[in-house]
From TrEMBL:
This is Alanine racemase. Its cofactor is pyridoxal 5'-phosphate. It comes from the Bacteria. Pfam families: Ala_racemase_C (PF00842), Ala_racemase_N (PF01168). It catalyses: L-alanine = D-alanine. The keyword Isomerase applies. Residues 279-404 form the Alanine racemase C-terminal domain. Gene3D superfamilies: Alanine racemase, Lyase, Ornithine Decarboxylase, Chain A, domain 1. GO terms for biological process: D-alanine biosynthetic process; peptidoglycan biosynthetic process. Its EC number is 5.1.1.1. It comes from Facklamia miroungae. It is an enzyme of class 5 (isomerase). The modification N6-(pyridoxal phosphate)lysine is found at K41.
């Protein structure tokens, strides 16, 4: 395979065709009035924001979602224009000039944002920006996530009345987030849905975009079909929000080898049973191979002691690359063999037990398929006691991405 660097073989391989495939799956499921926005925050969940965003637009999405203004500006500077970019996270009013200049849509949850933004423009003598531009906003409602957003009818009514004082604001949308669609008690969706209906009924009809669908909610047709936008996040990248493991990629035998029973990790909800294709592969190569005698101490703290004469391989990846010490129980794949990590993971390297001697430069797969094994991010996350979102977004920028 092509190497991104001549100096270090560790790299992530991102399959953009799989990104397109996953979007197309949702396009076949969505209602005719619904739009799909691709969520490319956190460097597109570690996949690379700019290439993923451009691919998603080619595949037909009509908007993008990010977490910060800086993420949105990065996309605009990369030539991504004429498409809405919704900043879903906290936005401070002090960067109002750039928000207007780059034509961004921001999330608000109180009127003070507009007052402070106007003060900032006056302070910097930038009021002329409002002559030919409007500030595009979506209002956030807190229906049960308890993160940000308006929570009561009184708060919503006050916002509806107060926004009239700011004619330079283009109020385009209102949204919420269902906290248990991807995990937790499903009954809580009903609670949030009822609160959403109570609050959104107070919003003027001129606010046309009303949305709450994430990857999981987009498949709950009884409710999800009523959202104007599907914010496609984890499923854009071929995974599902409950971190279940597909049987077409990971065999029952592999689950047994990794000490799982199918009932623990398989999907039991048909509405989530999409043929998603993971887009992320993480590979490196053996950089050092040696045979050690029984009783040899390996890694920091002598955290592993060989039980017999063993072949040991060193690979150039560690927690500075985002392969965290918590992943010490995750096997890596070498020519179809699942090889355990020995001792604790180092900052830049780690050691594994090999079944036999392999030549230097032999490919090692940390995430992805090798022979009968598929190191699926959802399966690996379960081993490490985390979620696939965290695993992917933690892969650092030191690991180059290549695109196929």
């Amino acid at each position: 395979m092509y190497r991104a660097s001549e100096h270090r073989p560790t790299q992530a391989v991102v399959n953009l065709e799989n990104i397109k495939h996953n979007i197309q799956l949702y396009q076949t499921k969505k209602a005719s009035h619904q739009q799909i926005y691709a969520v490319v925050k956190a460097n597109a969940y570690g996949h690379g924001a700019i290439p993923v965003a451009k691919t998603a637009i080619e595949a037909g999405v009509t908007g993008l979602c990010v977490a910060t203004v800086d993420e949105a500006i990065q996309l605009r500077k990369a030539g991504i224009s004429n498409i809405p970019i919704l900043v879903m996270g906290l936005t401070l009013p002090y960067g109002i000039a750039e928000i207007l200049y780059y034509d961004l849509t921001v999330t608000v949850s109180d009127l003070s944002f507009f007052m402070l933004a106007l003060e900032q423009l006056k302070k910097n003598q930038q009021e002329t920006l409002l002559k030919d531009r409007q500030l595009k906003v979506h209002l956030k409602l807190d229906t049960g996530m308890s993160r940000v957003g308006l929570r009561t009818k009184e708060e919503v009514i006050a916002f509806v009345d107060g926004i009239q004082a700011f004619p330079w604001v283009d109020w385009q949308g209102v949204f919420t987030h269902f906290s248990t669609a991807g995990g937790g008690p499903i009954s809580y969706i009903d609670f949030q849905w009822n609160r959403w209906q109570e609050l959104v009924d107070l919003i003027p009809a001129s606010v046309t975009l009303r949305h709450f669908d994430n990857s999981a909610m987009g498949l709950y047709k009884a409710i999800g079909g009523q959202s104007d936008i599907i914010r496609l996040g984890i499923s854009l990248y071929g995974l599902n929000s409950r971190d279940t493991v597909p049987n077409d990629l990971v065999s029952d035998q592999q689950l047994a080898d990794y000490h799982f029973s199918p009932s623990e990790v398989r999907n039991t909800e048909s509405q989530l049973d999409l043929k998603l294709k993971p887009a992320f592969q993480l590979i490196t190569e053996l950089s050092y191979v040696k045979k050690v005698e029984k009783g040899t101490c390996i890694s920091y703290g002598a955290s592993y002691v060989s039980q017999e004469d063993e072949w040991i391989g060193t690979i150039p990846i560690g927690y500075a690359d985002g392969w965290l010490r918590a992943y010490s129980q995750i096997p890596v794949l070498v020519e179809g063999h699942a090889c355990p990590v020995l001792g604790v993971i180092n900052m830049d390297q780690l050691m594994i037990r090999l079944p036999k001697q392999f030549p230097l430069g032999t490919e090692v797969t940390l995430i992805g398929q090798d022979g009968k094994y598929y190191n699926h991010p959802s399966l690996l996350a379960r081993i490490a006691g985390t979620i696939s979102y965290e695993m992917l977004t933690c892969i650092s920028e030191r690991v180059p991405r290549i695109y196929i």
